[in-house]
Amino acid sequence: MAGGRQEKDLVHLNAIHVENVKKERRYQKLHTEFSINPYRKLHVLPDKPMCSKPPESLSEDTTYIDAYRRVRMAPSLKYPKPITESQEIGWFVNELPPQDRQDPRFNFPRRKTDITQLALFTKKRGN
């Protein structure tokens, strides 16, 4: 062939394939422990009505149930301090003090003045 390029035969192609497989196996990790993702919603279906298995024979996995409950908890119950900056807003929630309607500093009721009464009067008349 022209340009110094040689055609690859089956031996060279097999050697390239073996090298690729070795690279893949070097970075491949075998996972033998499988579990259900606790961050996804779980749709629990009951047994069939005519099921003959007694409920005692069904084993209960408490680790998954605990992980599921922990995921569904509010962040303030899961963690002692806020994790992100956006969680800092509203993390320490205290109840508001009782409202005192007699205190003029905090209570601003609507009041009628001469101008507002005139505006209401002209609006009712249709001018």
From TrEMBL:
One cellular component term from this protein's GO annotations in UniProt: ciliary base
Subcellular location(s) of the protein: Cell projection, Cilium; Cytoplasm, Cytoskeleton
Pfam families documented for this protein: FAM183
Record key words, sorted: Cell projection, Cytoplasm, Cytoskeleton
Domain of life: Eukaryota
Span of the signal peptide: none
Main location: other
Family: Belongs to the CFAP144 family.
Protein name in UniProt: Cilia and flagella associated protein 144
Organism for this UniProt entry: Poecilia formosa (Amazon molly)
